[in-house]
Amino acid sequence: MPIIAVSALARSQERESALHAGCDAYVAKPFTPDELARLMATTLETQDVGAR
Q1: 2 in helix, strand or coil?
Q2: Separation CA 31–CA 51 (nearest Å)
Q3: Smallest Cα–Cα separation from 27: which of 19, 52, 48?
Q4: Helices assigned H by DSSP within the chain
Q5: How far apart are the first and last CA of the chain?
Q6: Is the pLDDT of residue 51 over 70?
Q7: What per-residue confidence (pLDDT) applies to 10?
Q8: Using CA of residue 44, residue 23, residue 15, residue 36, what is the dihedral sign?
Q9: How far apart, in whole angstroms, are the C-alpha atoms of residue 46 and residue 33?
Q10: Which residues in 5-44 are b (16+ Cβ under 10 Å) and which e?
Q11: How far apart are CA 10 and CA 4, in angstroms?
Q12: I need a labelling partner for 21 at 20 to 30 A (CA). Which of 4, 9, 14, 33 fits?
């Protein structure tokens, strides 16, 4: 299951920390629902998400 970090902090070090901690993607607020949907779709496409 992919993990997308959502934060109010838009600094690059926050993104790097989240990705280093194991998150698959990072988005900073404010974002639109369409932006989040695209990020989710992209993240799911690059992951092997199957039933286990």
Answers
A1: coil
A2: 30
A3: 19
A4: 12-20, 33-46
A5: 11
A6: no
A7: 87
A8: positive
A9: 20
A10: beeeeeeeeebeebeeeebbbbbbeeeeeeeeeebeeebe
A11: 14
A12: 33
Asked if 34 and 11 touch (Cβ cutoff 8 Å), the reply is no
Residue located via tokens 């194991």 = 22
Task: Find the Cα–Cα–Cα–Cα dihedral 40, 1, 30, 38, rounded to 10°.
Answer: 0
Nearby residues of 16 by Cβ (< 8 Å), 6 or more positions away: none
The two tokens of residue 46 are 């690059």
pTM (2 decimals)?
Answer: 0.76
